[in-house]
Structures are given as structure tokens and as C-alpha cells.
Amino acid sequence: MCGIIGYIGKRQAAPIIFDGLKRLEYRGYDSAGMAIFDGSNGVQIKKDIGLVDDINKRLNFLSMQGNIGIGHTRWATHGGVTQTNAHPHISNNKKILVIHNGIVENYQELLTMLKENGFTFYSETDTEIIPNLIEFEMRKGKDFEHAAIDAIKQFDGYCAVLAMFEGERKIVAARNGSPLVVGVGNGENFIASDIPAFLEHTKNVIYIHDSDFVVLDSNRVKFFNLEDGKEVGRPLHSIDWDIEQAKKGNFDHFMMKEISEQVQTVKSAANQDKEILFEIADEMKKAKGVFLVACGSSYHACLTASYLFSKITKLHINVVLGSEFSNYENFLTPGTLVIAVSQSGETIDVLDAVKTARQKGSKVMSLVNVVGSSLHRNSDRALMLNAGPEICVLSTKTYTAQLTVLALLAYTIAGKYDEGKKNLEYLWNIIYNLTAANTRKYLMKLAEELKDKNHIFTIGRGLQFPTSLEAALKIKEVSYIHAEGFSGGELKHGTIALIEQGTPCIVFSSKENEKEIISNAMEIKARGGYIIGIDSKKNKDVFDFFIKVPDVGDLNPIIQIIPIQILSYQLAVLRGCDPDKPRNLAKSVTVK
Ligand code: M6R
């Protein structure tokens, strides 16, 4: 969480940092700040609470002069959302500036030590420790670079840090567990939490590894190992993402743009590297136990896969939440295969699960969207989701991309790769229709009906049970309407007590389990529930509102979620919520 960006070169840094911060805002958006250095007039700092654009209107970030700069957009972990706690933070001597993503776990101990040495503190953040620790090391006679290395080595916890020193034309950085990538330009260099922050300026990137210490000036980027201080080589990669993919285009919000892109992204996800796909399929067949591990929507995709693998290949897999994975470590052996599924490849609970698996000697493979992410680099083999950058905090196109790849994997294991590809190709026209303007207009009528409701329930059976969980997550995280998803049979074991006259319930139905799910819908309707049916045909007696989605059998989860993604978006807009930046959330959850 938190977005960080640095620039050093010939151009004015402020507009570059400002645009970069806006592209990183999905990582955290409770406050933001920038520090710019012009090489002579001291460092200028501007920071405040709120969104980057709003702060700019008040403080005019763009008026800051200088061609070295750092910027930060915050998701608070340590200390409240206040102007004082916003980054950058400055040392006691007012010369060292730091921005930071992560947590300094031994904060208390370092704070006490620095206070004993005469340092004073103005904020409640753990970050303020860092510039002062660097100053403390410089007081011992070390230069900025060496003082920064020695300071960073002293703190525990996952982090990505950028620092600059008023007297020098350089930015230093370090990474331990939190994302950080260098963008290499011509006579200028960039460093940020994520590639879209500088994609407009360069597509040449160098991925920073854990325990790397990086020194950037306008013409060079040097990498050192934090532990022994030795210089290390890191390869340059050219990425094929396009800046247009990271812009809103004609859409008001990234969320709707990304929902619409699913026509293309399901296609790209199905277009997998065949060699890796077959290799992973083979490993799954051979493994003595397969675990799928993920969080949030990615977890729902894995749950869906557990049904798909059972139906298509008769292969049993265990699906575990990243944060619960350590409870299963006794079942891990060198024969176990762990497949981690993550859009960002930076979710800390998933990365920790991978670490646990590695300690037990298990193989680790992954499905991931962000090339060069920690998960991508820490996997024995990885299948890419090919969905392009997902900027909205909510997963939409990457969720269906995960389902697509997992379905293709199931078909491949069953020896039905060609059939799987053909079945997936059949979805493209359907997705086109489901995201078309007339469908959106039709769903808007439902959104108008539901916008003032306090609760929405969602139910499904079998393959559609995880779809109901994902639908509820989409609705609640973006519109703040309480929503809960259930297996069709479960509601009557307690929650049906909440059904009143007019309580909306979204029912995912299909030919396969129509009889049972429709009886569950009837039970709800009999108690006054308002039934929204997602099905291939209208059940007039039961559905109060009907959303027609063709029945595509095992692939139903890929298309049935789409109307609910659109509905969630519309509910957010009607209720005045920002669909791209829901409150309290951040796109990559890099803290535990
Ligand atoms: O990047 P990941 O796929 O690992 O992220 C997992 C979750 O944090 C993510 O799916 C989250 O639940 C989103 N808010 C869902 O819209």
C-alpha cells in the first residue's frame, strides 16, 4: 500500500511526480505529498490530506521548481490521516527527505534510541524514524549513501524506501518485500511502486529485488546488496504495456473501462504460453497435493477453480486464503505443489504463503498479472493473466482473466485443451453484449431500484457459489451497501431471518442446478424477498427482475459476474461513491 515515485533528470520534476502520483493513487489515497529539490535553493515540501488533485488545487504542487523529486500517496498504517503524518518526512537537520511504503516493526526501540541521542519528532509515523536514522549515521562521519545503507539495515519489516539529501543530486532507495521498480530514461531516471507511474516516459524497466539498495542519478542506476554492500547487476526489461491502457479514455472511471475491456482480456488470458500451461498441468497431475492460495477476489477465482477441477478433471485441490496458509504447513512436503494466484503479485499474505511453501521444499507456481512482481519472480513457473494494468482498486477484468486461465488449466489437465480454447472463444461475443450500452442502460433501472437498500444478498450453488461471494464483495466494497453471498442452501440456516419485505436477493441460476436454486429463491420470495434472477431464461413466477445471461455450462462464472460488476459500479455512482478509490481500501495489500 502507499504509492511512491522519484524522478531525477533535466526536466521539471513536479509535473512528472504529480502525474505519477495520480496513477499511483489506487495504492492509497488518504493524503499525498511531494518534495522537490532544485540543486541550490533547498528542498521544498508540500503535503496534505485528501486526493492528489484536490491537494494540488490548495497547495499548487505544480509550482514547485527543481529537477529532482520524490512523491508519496498514503494509505495510513502508523498514525492517523493528518497533514503532519503525510509523507515526505524530514530529518532534524532539515536536509534528508524520505518517503516510505511499509512498516518499521522495531519503531519503538529506534525511536527511544534516537530520542536518547537528542532527536525530536513531530509526527506519529514510523517513517519519521528513517530520515533521522540516516542523519544519525551521517553524524558519525559517513556520506549520505553509506549512512542510508546503515540506517535501512537497522529496521525490521517489509518496506520500500526512497530518500534524498539536500546536498546531493541523487535519490537512494531500498526494497524489502514491498514493490519498487526503476524506469530508465534518456538522461533521466524514475523509480516507483508500479510501472504506470512512469509509463508515459519510458518502457525500459529494471526490477528491484529484495535487499537491493539503489542509487539513481540522471545518467546511471547502480544496484548494491544491502547486506554486504557489493554492487550487483540487474537486467533491463522492455515492457509491452501501453500508456493508453493506464488512461481512462472516454470513460468516467477506470472501473467501467476495465469492465468493458473484458471482451479483450478474456481473449488475451486464453491466449496462454502453451509450454508453461502444459508444464503446470503436468506438475498438477504429478503432485502429491495441490494448494491454490490467494486473497479477496483472487481467492474467489480459486474457489471457483476447485469446482472446475473437480468437474472437468476430477482433481482434488485445496483452496486456502493467503492469511490462513500457515495453518496448513504440516501438509506441505517437497511433493506438494502450491499455486499462488494474484493480480498484483505483491499481496503480502500470498507472498508469505509462498515463503512457507518454499521452507517446506514445495514447488511454487503462480498466476499473476503484473510482470516482474515479487510473486512472478519468486515462482518456479508463472502463467500471466495478460489483462494489462488494472487501475481501479476493484478487481474486475483480472478476476475473469484468472477464471479463464484456471478453466483452461482444468481442460488441459483433462487432455481437452482444444475444447477448452473453443469454449472460451464462444464467450467473447457474449461478453461484448453483456458490456454493451443497452445492457448497461437496462441494469441502471435495477441500480435505481436498489440504491437506497441497506442489504443485498446473493446466492448460488456449485460453481455459482463462489460467484455469489464475489458478487457480494463487488457490491459492498464499492457502493458500501451491506452485501453477503451464500451457497443457495445456506441462507435458511440463519440469515433468512434478515429477509423482510423488499430485501433484494440476487440469484445465480443455471441449467445444472436450476431446480435447487429456484426452490431457494422461492423460500426467500415467500418471506418478502425481491428476487433478481441471473439465468438464461426467465422464471416468471420467481424473478422480480431478470438479467439474461446465456448458459455456458462450466464457464458460467466468467460471464455471470459481469452484470453484477456493472451493477456495483452503477450503485457506487448513484450513491456518490468514487468507484475507482473506495474508502479505506488500496489496490495492493502489502501489509499484514
Ligand atoms: O493483487 P491480488 O489479486 O493478490 O489482490 C487480492 C485482493 O486484495 C483483491 O482481490 C481485493 O479483494 C480487491 N479489493 C477485490 O476487488
Characteristic key phrases:
592 residues; alpha/beta; Glutamine Phosphoribosylpyrophosphate, subunit 1, domain 1; Rossmann fold; 3 domains; 8-stranded antiparallel sheet; 7-stranded antiparallel sheet; 25 strands; globular; binds 5-amino-5-deoxy-1-O-phosphono-D-mannitol
The overall pLDDT, averaged over residues, is 94
CATH topology of the largest domain: Glutamine Phosphoribosylpyrophosphate, subunit 1, domain 1
What is the global morphology?
Answer: globular
* Class from helix and strand fractions: alpha/beta
CATH class category label of the largest domain: Alpha Beta
Helix content: 25-40%
- What share of residues are in beta strands? 15-25%
* Count of discrete structural domains: 3
Radius of gyration: 25 Å
CATH superfamily of the largest domain: Aminohydrolase, N-terminal nucleophile (Ntn) domain
Major pleated sheet: 8 strands, antiparallel
Architecture per CATH nomenclature, i.e. the level-2 architecture of the largest domain: 4-Layer Sandwich
Number of strands: 25
Name every ligand kind in the structure: 5-amino-5-deoxy-1-O-phosphono-D-mannitol
Adjacency order of strands in the biggest sheet? 3-2-4-1-10-9-11-15
User: Termini separation (Å)?
Assistant: 11 Å
